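Notes from the 1:1 (GR / supervisor)

We went over the backlog. Supervisor wanted to see one worked example end to end before approving the batch request, so GR pasted a single chain during the call. The sequence is below; no edits were made to it. Supervisor asked that the structure be written out right there so they could see what the output format looks like.
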Amino acid sequence: MGKKKGKASFDEWHQTVHSEKCQRNFTGLSGAMEPEGAVRMWQRSEANGYRYVTFLSDGDSSSFKAVCNMNNGTGPYTNHTVVKEECVNHV
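Structure output shown during the call:
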């Protein structure tokens, strides 16, 4: 790690480099970001020509629950149930 820089240096970086390359696509609490991302991916899957059938998780069930609660609780695909798998070697 390099030498720490001050607020003025950060502000300059944020206004030039960061703002040009990064777009904010989520506003909310950090704990809600992962479930929201999962829902967005599952929502657009059929439009991209595929369906997810298994939800691989690290044990956090909030994202899985959010996906299952899509479409008033019927899940992302009304005629297919999403199956949850646990990643046992998750580090």
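Supervisor's comment: The chain has a mean pLDDT of 86.
Batch request approved.
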